Structure prediction request, 382 residues.
Amino acid sequence: MLYESVRHGRRKAAYPPPQEIRREWGTVGAQDDRDRTQDVLEEDLDDPQVRLRLGEAALDAGELMEARAHFENAGRLFDADPATVPARRATALRGRAVSHLLAGEVRYASHLLEEGIARLETEAVSAGGRPDPDALLMLHVAAIGPYTDLGAYARAAHAAEQALNLAPDAADPALVALMHRSIARTLIVAGRTGEAEASLAKAQEIFQRLELHTDLAHCHWMRGYVHSQDGDLEQAERELRTARDMLAAGRSVLFTVQVEVELADVLRRRGKPTEAEELLTRLLDQLGPWRGAVHAGGAHRLLGLLAEERGDPEAAEEHYVSALALLERAGAAGDLADICRLLGDLLRRAGRVEAALDAYRTGLGHRAAIGTTTLGPAPADS
Prediction:
């Protein structure tokens, strides 16, 4: 449900259908993707492994539909081979889920992961054994982010607990590091910031030892997020700039843009509105409802705040409407509660009480608190 002022002649944000998005963004990172694709094809890998590598390269380039197709094909090839180890099949499923998550289809991403977990457990019972710990750990860890975005905080905490129980039996140290990085968000939602930082330190040590630079960049990203949520903006800016530079160097186009949205939030909160707005304006063309949807909503939210701060309530309203449409479609609960409150407050101050109530009602049932939103807290209503 969108708020009432849309029906009062305000311009509603319009987005092209997915095929138009594809056409507009088809060249983003395309040359980099082709280069990595050629490298992959030159390696002596079995076909589903090639598909996995192609899917990962497409994710890095922000080509989500292409990535999804590669992961789906890899999954079918693995399913057709009875000798496939469960962890490989889980890798293909996780890739599919991530492609849906980045496209703003958060609920479907969590559904895929739940199905995968149930399948592993059912197959293990049928075989009279236990599920493969690496495969199960991978899927539980992957579920933490979508659950948190959806506001299913108890499920996210349960997934983190299951992952911690599985970690001692896991053979892949990179998976254990990924677990430590992912559970940091559940810890900050619970208000346990110190433990979140300790968990990230464990992840960072393992990724450094394994020389996994992209994963290390994601650690800096999560550190920046934790500092931003905790109000340590100087440290947040430092970590997010580090993550941004590392991801850009690794040609991770979409992830780089997402980090830059969070960096813009920190810059605004540090009293650098011009730098924040310049960064956001450049990023808008690289995000949308089928490409980084939650961060696209975050970018519009920030531009709305900046417009309010410079005394332009009409521009602020347009950006808040755009953010609301993106976040409502994605089902990002904490972010949705946050934008509904911002929009409702703006409308109430303008004397549009019915429209304000409509906005507030849209956010009912959700909460915006530390660790539950993509960006830092909004300023308190005056």
